[in-house]
Specification:
With 504 residues, the protein is an alpha/beta fold. The chain has one domain: TIM Barrel, CATH 3.20.20. The protein is built from 20 helices and 14 strands. The strands form 3 sheets. An 8-stranded parallel sheet has the order 10-7-4-3-2-13-12-11. Strands 6-5-8-9 form a 4-stranded antiparallel sheet, with no helix packed on it. Strands 1-14 form a two-stranded antiparallel ribbon. Helix 15 links the parallel strand 11 and strand 12. The longest helix has 27 residues. The radius of gyration is 23 Å and the shape is globular.
């Protein structure tokens, strides 16, 4: 994938400001797109948009296809007559600050249920027809997902692998029983998916109108407690009882001395290959409908993945196992043509990973925080960059620049100051300038770094399951002065926004 020289901002929609406790696909998302335009940016990068489960991580979703209902915007529903002004006043009970997912869920779902009732009773015929078409066009995943969530709610959100054996194994008569039992809730789940994708399409169209490209994100693995794992056990390393044989993670690294034990089921790549990699091809295809380009998290797992025996408490006792390599991406290219993929190639990189990435022209990632860690190699220093990469000040897994610099070793801080010839008075802007000035074709800054925020604004601390994914911007932080300052820097370093063309 070849692009013009460009830049953008990483901001997940949950982090947008607003009245209802969490960012949404409404007015604030459009205001952010307007901010990107003012700042002469070309790219909005987001995290996965799926419905989150345990620990609220967008990388552990209940479905690889569904959207997160918590992102549905109430003001848009009110403008369409599905909610009232009184409903909105009742929902406006959240202070500025981090997302409280439990309280947001308790507030949102009753109002979404009311919106469905009004839709069924009063919606315009063409609106209801759009819903029917959505259900028809997405039946391949929507029917099973809606049943899956309905059953989970019935069993107190217990994971599917703890359900009664006949239900866990998808006995047809048992499935039919629950389909009949939960007809109303199944329809409700379909309705909120319809609303989510309707609102997302409005945001996508608004971005396209303003020549902003959206970079989506696909986790390599699906969550163990996902409809995908429940429906397609044949493509995962499960035993005859649908229990994992081995699970995913990474060995000890920058983020954790014991590695990271993710617990995701691993793929049976031989079974996927026998099926022509159809599951992966459809997954990529669906995401290319939603986004202009996609970042694949943990790309190195396609070359070789860390396999940890099921039941281990840490990832230390894992081993490297070969992945599908070029075979998968040749199948994807044969089916979909050259696709706009960004490879998250952080962590333990080997020649086979680099060869896989470069054989298809996928840009990799360079993280400036890693460039000044005296215990690591300096491959992340800008003078080592090739053009076909994306440079970041940090990612959603990093501390903010301000937080990182305050905690860095004395020698690492000294290295930063010498390399950038700076006093560190505005260290976040020094890092942004370093990224923007580099030869990397794309440069991305997390919104927290653009705002110059500290560790309190960190999005995620790998290896932990609490107090993550909660950060939100406050009203008024996207100022004209901030946009103008970033815009001037973007012009100086040749990344200013003209219509971005992607050449495959």
């Amino acid at each position: 994938m070849k692009t013009e020289r460009s830049s953008g901002i990483l901001l997940h929609p949950t982090s947008l400001p607003g009245k209802y406790g969490i960012g949404t696909l409404g007015r604030e998302a459009m205001i952010f797109i307007d901010f990107l335009v003012k700042a002469k940016q070309k790219i909005w990068q987001i995290l996965p948009l799926g419905p989150t489960g345990y620990a609220d991580s967008p990388y552990q979703c209940f479905s690889s296809n569904a959207g997160n209902p918590l992102l549905i915007d109430f003001d848009q529903l009110a403008s369409e007559g599905l909610l009232t002004g009184e409903d909105l006043r009742k929902a406006d009970v959240f202070p500025d600050g981090p997302v409280d997912y439990g309280k947001v869920i308790m507030m949102k779902y009753p109002l979404l249920k009311k919106a469905e009732k009004v839709f069924n009773e009063k919606a315009r015929p063409e609106y209801q027809k759009d819903y029917q078409l959505f259900c028809l066009n997405n039946a391949s995943w929507l029917d099973d997902y809606s049943l899956f969530i309905s059953i989970k709610e019935h069993f107190g959100l217990r994971p599917w692998f703890e359900w009664e054996p006949e239900l866990k194994m998808r006995n047809k008569s048992v499935l039919k029983h629950y389909q009949n039992l939960f007809t109303e809730n199944i329809e409700f789940q379909k309705f909120i998916q319809f609303i989510f994708f309707r609102q997302w399409s409005m945001i996508r169209e608004y971005a396209q109108k303003h020549d902003i490209l959206i970079m989506g994100d696909i986790p390599l693995y699906v969550a163990h407690d996902s409809v995908d794992a429940w429906m397609y056990p044949e493509i995962f390393q499960f035993d005859e009882k649908k229990d994992p044989i081995a699970v995913g993670g990474v060995p000890p690294d920058y983020f954790s001395e014991t590695g990271q034990l993710w617990g995701n089921p691993l793929y049976r790549w031989d079974a996927l290959k026998d099926a022509g990699y159809s599951w992966w091809i459809q997954r990529i295809k669906a995401n290319l409908v939603l986004f202009d380009m996609i970042r694949i998290d943990h790309f190195r797992g396609f070359a070789g993945y860390w396999s940890v025996p099921f039941g281990e408490k840490t990832a230390i006792k894992g081993k490297w196992v070969p992945g599908p390599g070029k075979d998968l991406f040749l199948a994807i290219r044969n089916e979909l043509g050259d696709v706009r993929i960004v490879a998250e190639d952080l962590g333990v990189m080997t020649e086979d990973v680099e060869d896989l990435r470069d054989s298809f022209g996928f840009p990799g990632m360079k993280i400036l925080q890693f460039a000044f860690d005296s215990s690591e190699s300096n491959d992340y220093l800008p003078y080592n960059f090739l053009q076909n990469c994306i440079v970041y000040t940090g990612t959603h897994d990093n501390d903010t620049i301000i937080g990182w610099f305050k905690k860095a070793k004395k020698e690492d801080r000294a290295s930063v100051l010498e390399y950038m010839n700076t006093t560190a008075e505005n260290i976040h802007w020094d890092f942004i300038r370093l990224a923007w000035a580099s030869v990397a074709k794309m440069a991305i800054v997390p919104m927290q770094d653009l705002l110059g925020l500290g560790t309190e604004a960190r999005m995620n601390l790998p290896g932990t399951t609490i107090n993550n994914w909660m950060w939100r911007m406050k009203e008024g932080q996207m100022t004209n002065d901030l946009a103008e300052r970033l815009g001037r820097m973007t012009e100086v370093y040749g990344r200013s926004r003209t219509k971005l063309k992607i050449k495959n």
